[in-house]
Specification:
The protein contains 8 helices and 11 strands. The chain is α+β, with helices and mostly antiparallel strands. Helix 2 runs antiparallel to helix 3 (123-148) and helix 7 runs antiparallel to helix 8. The chain has one domain (18-192, 233-297): PPM-type phosphatase domain (Phosphatase 2c, domain 1). Strand 7 (178-183) and strand 8 form a beta hairpin.
Length: 303
């Protein structure tokens, strides 16, 4: 995973979405707006993308005491995290929708059982937390392999997820579902596609034009449920005004990075950003399922 240097949609296009505006404690106040949207696209007849946005809390509720309740509430308030994930079922295999759904559900369940990992952790606990995220991907991989066996046509999926523990975002990535980051006017891709084309490009064996023309250009070298799965991990610290984007390749096939950057900057909120991005992908051809999750943090520094 490349980290920059810094200090179920339904057939017919009906979206599944989640919207959250946080008015919580100072620790989570940076996260102000998050939304997710999925569309079948204009060509496919089935949506094989799945996404989730989930608020994850650890809290102790005191029902009766003669202690100072205000001070006790402050001491007992647990950590809060946000999980965002997008999965795209691998085309050309049966069960792509099942694979992406299972991957998202399994990672959510696994991390939901490990919510204590992000409760006021130190450096050692942070390392364990990242291991838990990787383990969640491996759990989804094992579940798919256990159900469908070990063949080249077994259901498989990409998966990119972000766990937000303000102000830090932890990223785990498999396949070519991407994570982007916008600060000011600079849009950076946080993930590197795990495709044979990207590997050939990185090694200097092919040029961009050659990769684009090659049948292997978009072939996945790593996917959850396939014979090879290699989760890549990273982290990034966020500032007020920053935006994160997770998206399936149904967006990036049709919308160039400069247009993504412009739409994210011009949108009045996370929902507007998701709707604008999906509309742009549809206008560009809509040849694949389109899923996007956008998270915007706090107010811009000059607000």
């Amino acid at each position: 995973m490349t980290i920059p240097p810094l200090g179920d949609g339904t057939p017919g296009g009906a979206p599944h979405a989640h919207d959250a505006r946080d008015r919580g404690t100072p620790r989570d106040a940076m996260l102000t707006d998050v939304y997710g949207l999925s569309h079948t696209g204009l060509v496919p007849t089935e949506n094989q993308d799945h996404f989730v946005v989930a608020r994850m809390r650890k809290i102790v509720e005191v029902t009766s005491t003669n202690l100072d309740t205000a001070r006790l509430a402050e001491r007992m308030h647990g950590g809060e995290a946000w999980l965002m994930a997008v999965a795209d079922g691998v085309g050309g295999r049966a069960g792509g929708a099942e694979a992406s759904s299972r991957a998202v559900e399994t990672t959510l369940e696994y991390l939901g059982q490990a919510t204590g990992c992000y409760h006021r952790f130190d450096v050692d606990e942070e390392a364990k937390f990242i291991e838990k995220m990787e383990a969640a991907v491996q759990a989804a991989h094992a579940a798919l392999r256990g159900e469908h066996g070990d063949t080249q046509w077994s259901p498989a999926t990409t998966l990119t997820m972000v766990m937000l523990v303000a102000p830090r975002a932890y990223i785990v990535h498999v396949g070519d579902t991407r994570a982007y980051y916008l600060r000011g006017e600079r849009l950076l891709q946080l993930t590197r596609d795990q495709t044979f084309g990207q590997y050939l490009l990185d090694s200097g064996a092919m040029t961009d034009a050659q990769v684009a023309d090659s049948p292997m250009g978009r072939t996945l070298a790593s996917a959850v449920g396939s014979s090879e799965v290699h989760p890549a991990v990273g982290l990034i610290d966020l500032e007020a005004g920053d935006t994160l984007l997770l998206c399936s390749d149904g967006l990036t096939k049709h919308v160039a990075n400069d247009q993504v950057q412009r739409l994210l900057r011009e949108a009045t909120g996370a929902r507007a950003a998701c709707e604008a991005l999906v509309a742009a992908a549809l206008a560009g051809g809509g040849s694949d399922n389109i899923s996007v999750v956008v998270a915007r943090f706090g107010a811009p520094p000059d607000a």
